[in-house]
Batch of 2 targets.
Target 1
Amino acid sequence: LAKQSAPNGLRFYDPAVQAELEARTEMERDLRVAIERQEFVLVYQTQVDSTGRAIGAEALIRWQHPQQGFVSPGTFIPLAEETGLIVPIGQWVLEAACEQLVAWADDDSTAHLTLAVNVSAKQFQQPDFVDSVRCVLARTGALPQRLKLEITESTVIGNVDDTIARMHQLKALGISFAIDDFGTGYSSLQYLKRLPLDQIKIDQSFVRDLHKDADDMAIVQTIIAMGQALGLNVIAEGVETQEHWRHLNDRQCHAYQGYYFSKPASAVEMVKRSLAPPPMLN
Ligand code: C2E
Ligand code: MG
Ligand code: MG
Ligand code: MG
């Protein structure tokens, strides 16, 4: 929208806005090509239990752009969501994740690992989403009991009943659900009460300073207590230091994810690290 409305109703030309618009158009075009040429890869970040042992991973998408190199999901996922390209991209992610689960199932040392997959609102709301998940499971042979879908509040907003119905259909297949970035939305508690969730992911913005900010600590402690009272598993994201881990562990958080345990890595690398002895709390 290069021509913005001025308060007096006149329209003016803004070169900065124009440049941004062109960059977006170009990225949208590149994204379409990327889907065709399969320029995406998944990396995996370990999730650990209270003893530090790997119990699973989260799959995170990466785009290897032929000219620009690595493009972060923070840049292209929002555009993919706006343009609807998230639907084919999300479908690819689901397939690749299920194939990874099948590969893990083949080996005793990895067969127990679960895999969490991020699902965007627009993808989840596709009329055939449940069917497409069913098809991917059937085609790949992945165990639904090892698959976890991460949704956010944006999926739920304005679609509460439909979201709940779909979640039940998917749960009937054996899939579990986490609510991602918990605490950053507007009406999280409403949803907590109504959605058939299995896990809450405490957003990393509350974890970052919890060792020095009493308010963050209070929020984290309350989320953990609430999760426990509601019978939900609670995982903290963005655990970067042993201090973070110790504070969360003292409050009986169930699971952890963050750079302290492992950065997102290739599947091979992730498994190699997860077989190493867990870090000790001292
Ligand atoms: P998210 O699902 O909340 O994923 C967590 C993000 O935090 C990841 O960023 C991860 O690399 C980063 N992270 C993990 N541990 C730490 C830590 O200790 N400290 C800090 N500062 N950051 C940490 P990433 O991979 O850049 O992904 C960003 C967001 O992009 C994700 O947030 C998710 O919303 C979205 N995303 C990633 N992959 C997919 C995907 O396959 N599908 C969809 N729909 N969205 C995705
Ligand atoms: Mg996530
Ligand atoms: Mg998150
Ligand atoms: Mg996030």
Target 2
Amino acid sequence: MRAAMLHAVGDDKLDIRDDFTLAPVGATDVRVKIKATGVCHSDLSVMTGLLPMPLPVVLGHEGAGEVVEVGDQVTSVAPGDHVVVNWTPACGACDRCVGGQPYLCMHYVMESFTLPRFRYGGETPAFGMVGCGTWAEEIVVPWQGAIKIDPEVPYEVAALIGCGITTGVGAVVNTAKLRPGATAVVIGCGGVGLSVIQGARLSGATTILAVDPLTSKHALAKKVGATDACTPEQLTEAVASLTGGQGFDYGFEVVGRSQTILAAWQATRRGGDVVVVGAGAMDDMVSLSAFNLMFDGKTLHGSLYGDSDVRRDFPLFAGLWKAGKLDLESMISSRIRLGDLNDAVAALRGGEVLRQIVVF
Ligand code: APR
Ligand code: ZN
Ligand code: ZN
């Protein structure tokens, strides 16, 4: 089968080849035929080395498809079911899972670092990004990695729920628990940032300021719910005019850089909540005033996968889309083929695109 693989960090091009095979489906595994998969910034971050992964690696982690085979012990899904791929399959038994934070379970994430589920050119093993590798025609995942979804939800919409939507909307409804009537600033308006904006609109924010250096992103941000938009250079002025200089109730960082984390921190009011959604570099340190950290009473949250329990939240986000409350179509900037992924990655580096969706 066909898949797109990265050989080494720093490579510009993916190796898109047709000679992949999959590991056999174990007793608790599921084989999924991928029907749609998105191009997320985290895929690019693996290519640049910002997100370390074992190599070589089949990229892609935002995907949806149809179950084609299940192991003997799998009862959660059956062949023919439509599923969204979950890149934090939770074991259900560790302290984090039992404590209600399944998105922090490391069991299967660590397993994916030692268990290559792909082979190419005969016997050479390849890993799947965060245990997935959805830039492939088929994947094998543990049963917790394939979440059943309403078959009326189109695959391309379901794919978006697999990462961008859950990460972004979840950061608002689960991490920040934004209160109706609140004000919010969202720094970075890619696929994930626009999902944060939608989450803030759904939660009843009255002012939502979208910040992005690319003015082409401002119109899109307003289309999905931002009330105002500006460039990073205009942020201080916007804080003054929109909040009387006090700062926003909530600040969301959706770029993945210390500089933008600081910008979100500074644009948030005393007592406000700052949520870091972007995935930054391991050695990119954030420096905050020790006095202000105490005196300003702000809270700094990291948000991984939108603090979501995907078994609850994937169907919930699908329901919001069906009810016309989540605009997922506007997030798709183009539909492409698996063979076009090198061009898609180049376009993502350029910054002008939103979600490019590979359809099969
Ligand atoms: N201030 C504001 N926005 C910025 C800045 C900045 N200084 N620098 C870049 N941006 C904008 C880009 O112009 C782009 O619109 O951030 C946006 C990033 O969008 P994408 O590349 O589409 O990234 P996305 O897939 O949305 O992911 C964003 O969330 O999940 C994480 O790993 C992911 O760190 C990444 C982040
Ligand atoms: Zn992603
Ligand atoms: Zn666990």
